[in-house]
Write a structure and sequence with these properties.
Blueprint (H helix, E strand, L loop, with lengths): L10 E5 L12 H13 L4 E4 L11 H10 L9 E4 L5 H13 L4 E4 L10 H15 L5 E6 L1 H4 L5 H10 L4 E6 L4 H11 L3 E4 L5 H6 L4 E4 L6 H12 L3 H18 L4 H13 L16 H14 L1
Parallel strand pairs: 1-2, 1-8, 2-3, 3-4, 4-5, 5-6, 6-7, 7-8
Helix pairs in contact: 2-3, 3-4, 4-6, 9-10
């Protein structure tokens, strides 16, 4: 069991995909429709502009503009806003836009271009965000996804930040897939809110006192994540495990594709809205054979 902590928010959050118009502008209306569908499926909320949202393929100005368009639309504790960037100034600009729009739960990657960064450099980067914002309401969640970023969040850095900024540094999203080697030891050592990003470990996270998940697959099968969480809370562990097994089958299947492209195809399949076919480079498109494989899997597993 992880250290007990009162989580400011918990549940199943969707690392939401981003619909784009043909001119690469974000289609806010289509995004809002998708968010409403997720809400109707009892999703707890959404992460805007994370990995699945193609954040680091979107121009900084367009991310800031889109964040502003969501001002006042949703409850603050139902939205996370990704502010990850390679430049501290860009992360600060995104943080400022999110706070101005009324969203204080910010998810931040480490600065991910330069490798071999010292723990001190990582600490100073995240501490600078808090110190520059000067906003007591800010809730910073660090984002650990070293297989993509090439830079991770060492537990020692997370622990130091949590000690020095206990009211502001409240959690982490762990998408490393290394539950036994990273997530579980961290939850046992630091009183934080660890949201799991790897669907395979949602139930294990709950068993270790974690608050829930922020995952890409919740875009298309949110009911399974909700089923796991509700069954676990009700003490129905066998039901929770059965649902986890279903979720794991989906996870193992989708990893054979570009997950972002595959998820957007499944959304387009449901909505019949071709706007979801549009991806930002370097992401391209599924082949007809890949679409057929996904169609067959859905027919057998939904």
């Amino acid at each position: 069991m992880g250290l007990k902590k009162i989580h400011e928010c918990e549940g199943s959050f969707t690392a939401i995909a981003t619909p784009f118009k043909t001119n690469q502008d974000i289609d806010i209306e289509a995004l809002q429709e998708h968010m409403q569908w997720l809400k109707d499926k009892n999703s707890s909320g959404a992460l805007l502009f994370g990995t699945t949202g193609e954040a680091n393929s979107i121009a900084l100005s367009k991310r800031i503009e889109a964040i502003g368009q969501f001002q006042g639309m949703y409850k603050a504790n139902t939205i996370f806003v990704g502010i990850g960037a390679t430049a501290l100034g860009d992360s600060l600009a995104l943080a400022e836009a999110a706070l101005k729009a009324g969203y204080n739960q910010l998810l931040c990657l480490p600065p991910f271009f330069y490798k071999g960064i010292t723990d001190e450099g990582l600490y100073d980067y995240f501490a600078s965000i808090i110190n520059c914002m000067k906003d007591n309401s800010l809730r910073l969640y660090l984002y650990h996804i070293p297989q993509l970023a090439g830079v991770g969040i060492p537990p020692a850095v997370m622990k130091r930040l949590q000690v020095d900024f206990p009211d502001n540094v409240v959690g982490i999203k762990d998408s490393s897939g290394d539950f036994n080697g990273y997530a579980q030891p961290l939850m046992n050592d630091v009183p934080l809110s660890l949201f799991i990003g790897d669907d395979n470990h949602l139930l294990a996270t709950l068993k270790n006192s974690g608050p829930g998940c922020i995952t890409a697959l919740a875009n298309v099968i949110p009911h399974i994540h909700v089923e796991i969480i509700n069954a676990y809370k009700q003490g129905k562990i066998d039901e929770a495990q059965d649902a986890q097994n279903k979720l794991t089958r989906w996870r193992e299947f989708i990893k054979d594709f570009s997950p972002i492209v595959a998820i957007k195809y499944i959304i387009q399949r449901r909505t019949k809205n071709d706007i979801w076919k549009n991806n930002l480079l370097p992401h391209t498109y599924l082949s007809p054979d890949q679409k057929s494989r996904i169609d067959a899997f859905i027919d057998q597993n939904v």
